[in-house]
Structures are given as C-alpha cells and as structure tokens.
Amino acid sequence: MTLDHDYDFWLLDLDGTLVDVEWSYTRGVFDRVGDRLGREFSDRQAEIIWNGLTGSRDRQLEAWGVDPDAFWTAFHEEEDPIERAERTYLHEDAAVVGDLEVPVGLVTHCQEFLTEPVLDHLDIHDWFDARLCCTEETGWKPDPTPVERVMNDLGVGHNGHRGVLAGDGACDVGAAWNAGLDAIHVERVGHEQRGRCVLGDHRVTSFDELY
Q1: Pairwise CA distance, residues 131 & 150, whole Å
Q2: Which residues form a coiled coil (predicted)?
Q3: Which of the 8 DSSP states describes residue 67?
C-alpha cells in the first residue's frame, strides 16, 4: 500500500469497514427485535441503525420513540453468534490489511461475543496485534478512550508514532481525530444512501484506492 510507509501503525473498525453481513440476516434480526418491542422496523430504519448512518444510534432510536436500553437488550439476545459469523463476508479489497507490516489494531462497536466468531470464521484473527470491543466501560467512538487503549496495547501511545484509523462511520473519523490520528473514511453505502458526506483525511470507497 502506498500509505503503508506513511504510518507507524493502523487501527481499523470491523463491521462496514472490513466485513459486512448478508441483508437477510439483518432483516431477520430486526423482525425479531420488533416482535419483542411490539413495533415494526422498516428496511430503511434497519439499515440506519445497523450501519449507524445518522451518527448516534441511541439518539436515533430515541427520535423514533424507542428506548435504547430495551432495544439493545433485545437486539443482543436475538443475535446468534454462529449464524452471524456464517453470514458475514470479508470485503475483497480489505484483504490488503493482512499484508500490513506495521502494528495493526481493531477497535469495534461489535460486541466480543459476536466479534470473536466472525474473526474465527473469516480466519483473520492474526491480522490484529490488539483488539478492543467497545463497552460502556471503555466508552464508544468518537470517544478517543477505546482508541487510546488499543494504542497503548500496541505500544504506540502518544510517543511520536504516526497512526491512522480507518472506518466507515463518522464516529470512526471523530475517534481518530480526538486521539490525534489521521482518519480514513471508507464509504461502503454511498453518500446518497447515507444522506450526508463524511469528511476524513482520506475518503475512499475501497482500500484499493489507497494503493
């Protein structure tokens, strides 16, 4: 990669950046969550929450009159780690991440009970020298805390090392900048579908554009 030599380390988001899941799986989860909560979620609403298209998922749920705590409790209970892993695919252009010759970390909002089976199924565990699945304790992107924790695990804290974080959401860009890193926004869904344009130090639709 042409940017490989420009950075001492890389951090990456997972869902929507390196991998995605088949739509039928997403639709099924939202159908079951809707049954639990006594309401329906349209395809567009499911897409917005799954991809975080409008920023804070909790604020978006509240705007729809849905209690975030009740939603996420139902959501995580309806997710099947094995089925999700089997229905998850790696973006072809993301394979270059496995060739990076600098420390690489993963910072994802995907919960550990889902992340680990996905990494196992896709055989990409060894891509990452450190991993963190965000929780209420660690904080959520764009909070820089989870990013800085992974940087410390990699041994590249704020000590002059130049790093970059690549992700598909505005929260990834915000977390990168808040942690003093460059940001790559990987636009997988398209600006029109997202409803806005996300800025970044680099803006691409594929990692291939970074060659």
Answers
A1: 7
A2: none
A3: -
Residues 168, 190 within the same domain: yes
What global pTM score does this model have?
0.91
Same domain for 122 and 167: yes
**End-to-end CA gap in the chain:** 5
In the chain, DSSP assigns E strands to: 9-12, 19-21, 88-90, 104-108, 130-133, 163-167, 182-186, 202-204
Tens digits of per-residue pLDDT, 19-33?
999 999 999 999 999
Q: What is the pLDDT of residues 115-126, one digit of tens each?
A: 999 999 999 999
Question: Position of tokens 């909070």?
Answer: 143
**Nearest CA-CA partner of 95 in 114, 57, 123, 67:** 123
Span 149-202, pLDDT tens digits: 999 999 998 778 899 999 998 899 999 999 999 999 998 866 666 656 677 889
Task: Domain of residue 62: give its range.
Answer: 23-84
Domain boundary among 35, 52, 84: 84
- Dihedral pair phi/psi, residue 79, rounded to 5°: -80, 135
